[in-house]
Amino acid sequence: MDIASAHEQFGIFRNLVRRCFTPRFSEEFRLSHRGSICPERAKCKSNLVYCTSYSFHAIVPILPVATDQLRINNEIRAHELRVIGADGKNMGVLTLAAALAAASVARLDLIEISSSTIPPIAKIMDYGKFEYERSKKEKVAKAKVKVSETKEVQIKVGTGDHDMELKAKKVAEWLAEGHRVRAELFLKGRYKGMSEEFLKERLERFLLRIPYAYKIAEPIARSPKGFAGVIERDLVAQAKREKVQSKNEI
């Protein structure tokens, strides 16, 4: 298929990356390197497209290249790169051809690790190893990010002191982890008719048992099941509390 018939069949390929193949290579090579970018900007037979100075033939791409995709080897578009060698040393600014040759000699891949700099930065290393190390770093980063959520604790008018202490310690753990806590006094039956002041005081007495500094995020108010309020940690007050405790222990 010549250039004219290709244009007629696929249409104008504006805003798509132009790709190339050469008939001198095998069919297997052309299929496996279908997404390769032309390494040099030299005029092809047609003045509508560009190719290398070799006997390459321009073809219309079926799919555009994703801009955020990691580029390796012949997928790299930049003509010059700042290259980091396999030993971690800076090899300076090299042409794409020279960088690819260096990677080929080392039997490794050329990976563009930063495309936002001028010139882009590329590293010579095994692509499989690079992906493995990158996935490990992503897992560590995700593990460090703690998702804050609102935990819930529920007490009743008849909850005993021992259970109160256990629940208060659990709330302290949640606060230390950075979570908000919704404390609720659950009312059932005849307890619903008790004095509102008494019921609020009952919930406040529970909050005072919490061995971690907190501040009121949402004041105690009526809820569908009784009375509830939301608290969150107070790091400044907690730091002062820990400082006083450390002085008392000396």
From TrEMBL:
Subcellular location: Cytoplasm
Domain Translation initiation factor 3 N-terminal: 72-140
GO molecular function: ribosome binding; translation initiation factor activity
InterPro entries in UniProt: T_IF-3_C_sf (IPR036788), T_IF-3_N_sf (IPR036787), Translation_initiation_fac3_CS (IPR019813), Translation_initiation_fac_3 (IPR001288), Translation_initiation_fac_3_C (IPR019815), Translation_initiation_fac_3_N (IPR019814)
Residue ranges constituting the Translation initiation factor 3 C-terminal domain according to the UniProt record: 149-207
Gene Ontology biological process: ribosome disassembly
Key words of the record: Initiation factor, Protein biosynthesis
Assembly description: Monomer.
Function: IF-3 binds to the 30S ribosomal subunit and shifts the equilibrium between 70S ribosomes and their 50S and 30S subunits in favor of the free subunits, thus enhancing the availability of 30S subunits on which protein synthesis initiation begins.
Protein name: Translation initiation factor IF-3
Source organism: Candidatus Kaiserbacteria bacterium CG08_land_8_20_14_0_20_50_21
